[in-house]
Amino acid sequence: MLPENIQDSLPEPGETVLTSGPVAAASQPAPREPFWGYTDLAMMIGLLTGSIVLLLVFAGLFISARPDLKTDPIFLLATQLGLYVFVYICFWAIFRTRYDRPVFSSLGWRRSNFSPLLAVVCGGVLAFLVALAGSLMQTPKVKSPLDDLTSTPVLLTLFGLMAITVAPLFEEMLFRGFLQPLLSRTLGIVAGIGITASIFGAMHAPEYAMAWQYVVLIALAGAAFGWVRARSNSIIPCTIMHGSFNLASVIVLAVSKYAPHSLT
Length: 264
Prior knowledge:
Order of helices and strands: HHHHHHHHHHHH
Largest sheet: none
Helix content: over 70%
Number of strands: 0
Number of helices: 12
Shape: globular
Distance between the termini: 99 Å
């Protein structure tokens, strides 16, 4: 028979036992990574669709009052910047209201052991390899909105600044920060990278007259960004790499447009 003081400490039948220390910590389920799900993805698609419609309505109102804005490159750049603002608002609406979580750190804006300098070099090398692949694929020359956005040195400078800073940040937040981890959790890392890269390439198709070669090339670049995201567990390296990739493209574009003819 157990001593009375030990008998008093035993739990009654059906009583929940609360423990602390390593045993209690081990019994707690690991937090889901990422913490969002496909309901949040559907909400994001809905919010972004609504934001794009709202943005188009406002743009249409401005154009109706000033028809010349329809082809104004500055207005087009401002509209693009407005879209990025809406992307952030959509993320904030989901993460703050549903989970009370911050936006940037939730999407993977965190320190990693992947060197920023290495990310810059990788972006430049990737731009060269993609250009080489495009040459081998005999990528056609197509009329692109980028032609209007880079028609003068000032416009090229403004476009370049956006292309190497704001655009990579928000595209990586959306694709490698939000979509890829969700798909990777469900389908595996390779499928998550591949599917996200394919969507990334397809989303850029309208910029290049729907030419399939551009879609493939951009998807390959997206796969490289995705691999860096998976390797580093952070969107900082892939954002830097994306910006470096775009910088190389802008430099080539500037040289082709504005370098003295004697150098070409």
